Amino acid sequence: MDQNRRYRSTLRRREAGVLLHISSLPGCFTSGDLGGEARNFVDFLANCGFALWQTLPINPPQGGDSPYQSSSVHAGNPCFISLAPLVQKGWLPKQVLRGHNCSKEVKYHWLLNAHEAFRSHASAAEQESFQQFVAHHKSWLDDYTLFEALHQDLTGRGWWEWPQPLREREPIALAEARARLRESTEFIAFQQWLFFTQWDELKRYANERGVKLFGDMPIFVAHDSAEVWANPELFFLDAQGQPTVVAGVPPDYFSATGQRWGNPLYRWEQMAESGFAFWIERLKTQLILFDIIRIDHFRGFEAYWEISASDDTAMNGQWVNALGDELFARLHQHYDPLPLVAEDLGIITAEVSAMRLKYGLPGMKILQFAFSGEATNPYLPYRHELNTVVYTGTHDNDTTLGWYTSLEPKRRQQVEEYLGYPQEPMPWPLIRQALASRARLAMIPMQDLLALDGSHRMNLPGTASGNWHWRFDWSMVEETLAAKLHRCMEIYGRLGQVPSEEV
Are the C-beta atoms of 322 and 300 separated by less than 8 Å? Predict the structure, then answer.
């Protein structure tokens, strides 16, 4: 491969979008879903002139509510399945839609009922669609359905705690389990068929209205996941299935002891021997769902922080080189340009930046990080590269209004002075800075469009509870907001009609 080659970026025009997770949509269940409110949100985006809808990872959360720790890198979260189409098909009674704040357990109950109705009443075309889905996704669906069924059968124990024949995937034990748990695996596959079918309908609806779906893919996978159980040779594990080393980041100004994430680390050489099949399959599934994908912790593809599994903190870890250059070269054989955005926040080395630039991957800039008082701050708008995605803040930040009101007087003075002492109330001055940036893509969290304070933030890193549950309601949206935003798109040339300069 030509080491001097530079690849094209997936960002070609000046556009803007909104960050809102599926779970944050309105609705009668405890989580938003892929039903009518998702289409209403697409209509809102289109009316505003936005071209992208960014979500957080949509895979099933592992145990807790964090979408960044999932039991599968391929499967969709069943909580996002809308029950309304199942009522329309006659698989569920109309009373299902009259509930209020219904729980995950209630939705699971109704999905079970829908599966029974599907088995007895679905048309031949629907049955054929289900069978085609199972066959098309066999490469990951077989392992995932059995993994989930065994989890339920063995009372939620981690796969490393399963009986040895199942833990080590002995063929006879797997065949016996699959036969014994056939109804469970079929129900789990049914849920995935519903999820992918509804997502496909939403994606087509969005694309027809000029809105692209923008996904989010964590770099590492959870220990208790179908992928680690099915591919233990790709991870640093001992004979009992326990990680010998785990992922995290070193100490910095955010944490004196660093962050110990606990995810098992990849055996990159093993992945390379298979032609990076794990990553090719992973990206293939994600690009069925999304038009473009943010890849989390891009820094870890150049070198990752390796922590001994016996250490309680990240302090004694070490940097270990990864094979990101080889991986992205391989992925470019399948996708050109690569439809990825690199999350390159934090302390980034020259080697990491060089790899990102080589493969034409847009980086990220967060305006809440810009006002340190130094003219060399790379997050300041005038220092943004063209091939960049600028955010006012992300899901890990406070809302912009919450951030602004919590600033010390000196820092707030710096913000106001840089912005020219604006008359418009916060967060609109920062929203306008994002839209005016040279960056080809500007992304605004929904909380900022609604001018909400810090009580509406999505996640507070380092805390174990109270996160990921924020939702909006249409009563929060002023009648004039769409027109105001559409005018902003015109003023700042973000309706997609202005070709941007080449990098």
Answer: yes
